[in-house]
Amino acid sequence: MSQARRRNDRALLAWLALALALGLILTYSVSAWARPGGGHSYSGGSSRSTRSSGGHSGGGDGGDAAGLIFQLLLLCVQYPALGVPLLIIVIVFFIAKAAVGAGRKGWSTSTPEEVQAVQRVERSAPLARSELDAIRTLDPGFSLVLFEDFAYMLYAAVQRARGIGTQALAAYLAPNLAQALVDPQLSDVQGIVIGAMRYVHFSGPQGQMLELELEVESNYVEVLRAGGSRRFYAVDRMRLTRAATARSRPLARAHKLDCPNCGAPLEAVRGTECSYCRQNVGFGRFDWMIAELSNQTRETRGPLLTSDVAETGTELPTIVDRGAPQKFAELERKDPAVTWQALQGRVGLIFAELQAAWSGREPMRIRPFVSDNLFQSMYYWIDLYTQARCRNVTENATIRRVDLANVLSDAYFDAISLRVFASSIDYTISDEGKLLSGNRSRPRTYSEYWTLIRGTARRGEPRRDNSCPNCGAPLRIGMTGQCEYCRVKITSGDFDWVLSRIEQDEAYGG
Ligand SMILES: [Zn+2]
Ligand SMILES: [Zn+2]
Fold first, then answer.
1. Which helix H or strand E contains 273, and what residues bound it?
2. What separation in Å is there between the alpha carbon of 267 and the centre of ligand 1?
3. Would you state the pLDDT for residue 302?
């Protein structure tokens, strides 16, 4: 009886030890991804793009590993039958983990050791942009760059329509949605700024309808009929559908909402019937239609400008598209002036101007180098700092390494995605000079994915100086991206590489 109980106790102890050891392994493998500060959403300030908003501690991993080994050795002495096999499992786990990191070749600019340790592997993303690129097999005029501009525009229009009515947008909305979206309490929705957009689901180019689900982080101001207004920080899901037979609109019409078929102004479309082309232009027949719009979360809390939010994901391997090095080589063949080194020069210039614009609260400094959507988002953030009478200062900002992540080319644009590792001193001070958050002496390391775009027809070396890529005059440009001298819009990518997207490690899907 007592022997049986002892055996039971032993079995229980063994199970406990096993659970403990597995727990330790899990803790170790998870700790690499955990963000101590938590809550990193648009509302929390993650979209601030020039900086890391906190340090990820490099020391924790070593401590965890030592603790784990000690526990295991103890287990080996006390219960060798259990401890030894577990020790072997753990050793195999670490060797495998190290092998994954060491065994891959990357495409990067080399740099100091501290970031060299970061692995470069091809890991499968939730939904890579390359998958969407498959739409070009049906529709050769499809451009991801233009599509994303369109999706931003449509999202902003539908948000606004909740207040001012959906009649004008009927061609772009599922019939049931047109009714359901309108909020009778609202007279308008204004100040819509999109912080990030992610792809959640894509049905692929099979079947009669293409279906695509996007997650959009935004903020906007609802203007109430009863008077007053309220600002929201929201995450929405937007499901778009389009007939597989539809073809993308030409470049000239890419940045306006009009009749999805003939381009007549939206006023000409009554219901889903266009009075110009006499077609029923709804139901995704000619262009993307919003089939569903649902709110995931929204809150009225303002952005936390002065909190210390820990950086996360810097230690994750770079998501490299399998075809990226080859596609970069193709790009280089097409235009030998676009070398990896020349591109680094351009990235370096944009990086430096970004720090200056951000720290100095001078958004116009970055205007020549970023797309309209990215500028709008940055302008919004810098304005928030100005209103809060504080500034986020990044000093001694240095790029430590740049990895190639992806290259996508379509009929209109070449797009290069890079992972930029950088470090800088990073703190926030009030206009009176009081330190509000961050550290004035200890630099922080972080990484972000940058996507640069340029028109496919353009050739020539990426510029590293502050002059107009069209007329050569010193860069002075307006809000809309036009050179003050030659009046040409230089931020569309028609002239040189411009930054169109900044994504944090945890948000980048490929
Ligand atoms: Zn029409
Ligand atoms: Zn010019």
1. strand 273-274
2. 10
3. 62
